[in-house]
Amino acid sequence: EPTVRTELMEQIPPIAIFLQESRPKFPTAFFEYLMPIVVRYLTDVNNQVRKAGQEALLILLEQDLVAQSDIENKVCPILLDLSAPDSDDEYKVEAVNIICKMASMLSRTTVEHMLLPRFCELCSDGKLFQVRKICAANFGDICNAVGQEATERLLIPKFFELCSDSVWGMRKACAECFMAVSYTTSPEVRRSKLSPLFISLISDTCRWVRQAAFQSLGPFISTFANPSSAGLYIREDGTLSIRPPAQDVNSNSCQPGNNITVMSSSANAA
Known about the structure:
2% strand, single chain, 2 strands, mainly alpha, two-stranded antiparallel ribbon
């Protein structure tokens, strides 16, 4: 019964945490018995069971309970199979969604070598706009997961494609994550490539795209600021925040002109 399998999946994370805490007594129980079940249920015929399996997998990854070898030898191969060009549409959409969500929980090397090539392929999926939409919505997270070099070499060309996609929802998603993408690149790429691209979005024929671009304008401009002087930084959840001044603003040791931007930003935040 699918309901039984779904219920089983919901119990996997707490059982795994218990086994981890009692590891001297059960050193291999999770890897031998539970992990194979989670991997198998990612391809279950019932979508509710698959969804429960995906949620369980994310919790296990977030709690750092899955061994690196299992990630590379069991989890990633399954997701690559499910997201292959000839895969079933429903399975492909689910696979790209889980790939995007788990990217921030894996090592940069694993993401870059095992998942990034497939993500780049999915960005150009001509069959399912839902796949491209998921890629666009999570683009900033993938950039953050792989770092500047891979972003500029492999992801920026795909970002250009998505920003000019015929489906306006794709362009809107790109506008919404523009700051996160810009934050991962060098100042030169921001100036020479991303600025003209942003202008195209802010001048888009669709008003929903233009509105999203205008809402991202301030955050995008903030990525040009020097974090050490402006006090702006990106939190782990992708939101823009203001770092408090490193020195007491009333300190006599402050040099004239230092921390001006930081103090004014802090005042505005207050």
